[in-house]
C-alpha cells in the first residue's frame, strides 16, 4: 500500500488487542484514529481519540469525522466487539439485537463510509472475527451469530468493493487474553491447548495485520490464528475447561 501519508481507523483502540494494533500502526508511520466507547477511556500517545457508541446509527460518521483534515483513510480495522455469555434456553432478544448492532451493523456502516469517502487510492478493511467460527460450540450464542454475520458481510463487501480498490479480509484468532470472567488459573491452563501446543498471542494478530497490509493481492480471505485448535472440535468454549487442563469441563 506504499509509504505515503495515510490514516488508519481502529475500533476498540484503547485497550487489549485494539491498543496493541494502534501502537503497532503508529510505529509503522500511520496516522491512527483510535475509537473508544467512553470519554474516560485512554488511547496510546500519538493516536487521535474518538468516542462513539457503536450501537448508534451515526457511529460511522462520528468515527470517520475524526479523520477529517488528516491523510486519507487507507485502513479500517473493525476490532471492537460486544462479548456476552448466553445460550439457547437463556437467550434474550435484547442481547441478540445489541450484539448484532455492535458486531455486525457497525462494521457494515463503517465499511460503507469508507467506500463513500475513499477517493483515489487503494484501501484495506480488516475484520476481527473469531476462530470458533471454524469449529463452533453452543457458548456465547449471540456473540457467535454476530460474528457469522460479520463474516458474511466480509464476503459480500470483498466482492462488491474490489473494483474500487478496497480489499476486505478477516483475522480469526483463538483465545489470546483472559475473557469475560475467566480466571488467571483457567487461562494459564487452557491458553496453549492447541495441536501446536502454543497459545495465540496479541503479537500474532499484529503480524497478521501487517501481512494483509503488504499483501495487496489478497481479498475476501480470513486468516485463522488458532494453533490448529479447530481440529480438536471442542464441544464447549475453551474457557469452560477445568483449570487443571485435564480435559474436563466446568459447570455453567
TrEMBL record:
Spell out the coiled coil positions from the record.
none
Q: Which PROSITE patterns match?
A: ADH_SHORT (PS00061)
SUPFAM superfamilies, alphabetically?
Answer: NAD(P)-binding Rossmann-fold domains
Q: Which terms are listed as keywords in the entry?
A: Oxidoreductase
Keyword hit for Acetylation: no
Look up keyword Oxidoreductase and say if it applies: yes
Report the sequence similarity comment from the record: Belongs to the short-chain dehydrogenases/reductases (SDR) family.
Q: What is this protein called?
A: SDR family oxidoreductase
Source organism of this protein record? Sphingomonas caseinilyticus
